[in-house]
C-alpha cells in the first residue's frame, strides 16, 4: 500500500502519515529480534524500542506543527501552557505483547497481527480527530467528530464505516481486567449476557484498538475491558462511535492510574450489557447459614 495522503482534512492527513511511518518502521524492527529491545515496565507490561521510537516521532511531528499537550503510553502527560485545552492522546504500539512475540516469537513475520498505532486529538475534553493503524493487516482507520469514520484497506480502497444490524453469533471482545471482589463474576456475566442476546462467543485479541475498531466494522458485537487508560481507547472509540457504536465508561475506584472500565458495543446489545455490568459489580453473596447481613452489608450473627 502506498503512503495514504489523499485525505482532505490537514490534521487527519498528517496523523495518518505519521501513523503509517511509525507502523512501517515497527514492522522492519519486528524482523530483527535484536533491534526490538524488549524490556519490562514496573507493572510487568512489555515495552520495546519501537514503542519509544514511535512516541517520539508522533510527538515531534504533531505537537511541533499543531501545538497542544501530549499524553503518551511511554512518556506520560504534559499540558501545553499556550493551548491547555488541546491534548494529543497516543499509544505508539498498542498490543506490544503481540507485536514483540505473538505466536511466532520475535523476528517471526507470522507473529500475532493484532497490534496497532493509535493517535487521538482532544479539544476541550472532546476527542475530535482519530487515527488507528493496524500495520500487519495494512488497515488505516480514521474519524472526525460529527463527520463519520472510515477505513482504507491494503489495496487502498476507502470505505465509510456504518453499523447495520448485528449479525447473530458475532463474537464479543471480552478483554477482562476488571477489579474488585466481583471481577470474575463481571467478566463471566457479561459473556453470558452477550451469548444469550446473540449466540456469539467471546474472544480476546490482546490489543485494545483492534478490538474496538472491529466493533466499528461489525466483526465484533462489543468490546469490554476493566482497566484501560484514556490514551488506550481515545482514537478507536471515536472510530467506533462515529460508525454508530455506543460507549459506556466508569472510572476504576481507588485507582492511582485513573483507569477506566469500558463497554463499546452495537446499540442493540448495549443497554443490557451495561445493566449486567452494574448488577455484577454490586453483587453481594448470600450470608453463610446462621448469619444474616445488616442493611450496611456487614454480616451479623443471628441470636
Notes on the structure:
This protein has 303 residues and is an alpha+beta fold. The chain has 2 domains: 152 residues, Fructose-1,6-Bisphosphatase, subunit A, domain 1 (Fructose-1,6-Bisphosphatase, Chain A, domain 1, 2-Layer Sandwich), CATH 3.30.540.10; 111 residues, D-Maltodextrin-Binding Protein, domain 2 (3-Layer(aba) Sandwich), CATH 3.40.190.80. The chain is built from 8 helices and 17 strands. The strands form 4 sheets. It has an 8-stranded mixed sheet, sandwiched between helices. A hairpin with a 2-residue loop joins β6 and β7. α6 runs parallel beside α7.
What characteristics describe this protein?
alpha+beta; Fructose-1,6-Bisphosphatase, Chain A, domain 1; D-Maltodextrin-Binding Protein, domain 2; eight-stranded mixed sheet; 17 strands
Question: What's the short version?
Answer:
The protein has helices spanning 10-30, 33-36, 49-66, 96-100, 183-198, 208-217, 230-242, 267-282, and strands spanning 39-40, 46-47, 69-72, 76-78, 86-94, 116-123, 126-134, 139-144, 148-152, 158-161, 172-174, 202-203, 222-228, 246-251, 260-265, 291-293, 299-301. It is 34% helix and 27% strand.
Amino acid at each position: 500500500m502506498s503512503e495514504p495522503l489523499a485525505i482532505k482534512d490537514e490534521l487527519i492527513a498528517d496523523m495518518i502519515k505519521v501513523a503509517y511511518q511509525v507502523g512501517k518502521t515497527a514492522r522492519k524492527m519486528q524482523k530483527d529480534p535484536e533491534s526490538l529491545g524488549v524490556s519490562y515496565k514496573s507493572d510487568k507490561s512489555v515495552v520495546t524500542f519501537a514503542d519509544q521510537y514511535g512516541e517520539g516521532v508522533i510527538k515531534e511531528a504533531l505537537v511541533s506543527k499543531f501545538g497542544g499537550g501530549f499524553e503518551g503510553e511511554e512518556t506520560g502527560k504534559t499540558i501545553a501552557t499556550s493551548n491547555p485545552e488541546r491534548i494529543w492522546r497516543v499509544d505508539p504500539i498498542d498490543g506490544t505483547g503481540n507485536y514483540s512475540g505473538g505466536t511466532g516469537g520475535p523476528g517471526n513475520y507470522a507473529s500475532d497481527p493484532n497490534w496497532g498505532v493509535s493517535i487521538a486529538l482532544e479539544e476541550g475534553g472532546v476527542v475530535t480527530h482519530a487515527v488507528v493503524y493496524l500495520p500487519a493487516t495494512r488497515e488505516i482507520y480514521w474519524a472526525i467528530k460529527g463527520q463519520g469514520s472510515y477505513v482504507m484497506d491494503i489495496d487502498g480502497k476507502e470505505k465509510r464505516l456504518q453499523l447495520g444490524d448485528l449479525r447473530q453469533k458475532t463474537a464479543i471482545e471480552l478483554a477482562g481486567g476488571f477489579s474488585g471482589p466481583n471481577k470474575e463474576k463481571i467478566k463471566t456475566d457479561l459473556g453470558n449476557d452477550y451469548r444469550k442476546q446473540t449466540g456469539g462467543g467471546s474472544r480476546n485479541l490482546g490489543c485494545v484498538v483492534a478490538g474496538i475498531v472491529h466493533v466499528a466494522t461489525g466483526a465484533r458485537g462489543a468490546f469490554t475491558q476493566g482497566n484501560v487508560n484514556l490514551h488506550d481507547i481515545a482514537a478507536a472509540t471515536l472510530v467506533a462511535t462515529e460508525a454508530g457504536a455506543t460507549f459506556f465508561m466508569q472510572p476504576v475506584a481507588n485507582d492511582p492510574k485513573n483507569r477506566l472500565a469500558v463497554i463499546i458495543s452495537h446499540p442493540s446489545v448495549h443497554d443490557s450489557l451495561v445493566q449486567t455490568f452494574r448488577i455484577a459489580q454490586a453483587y453481594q453473596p448470600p450470608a453463610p447459614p446462621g448469619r444474616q447481613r445488616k442493611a450496611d452489608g456487614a454480616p451479623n450473627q443471628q441470636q
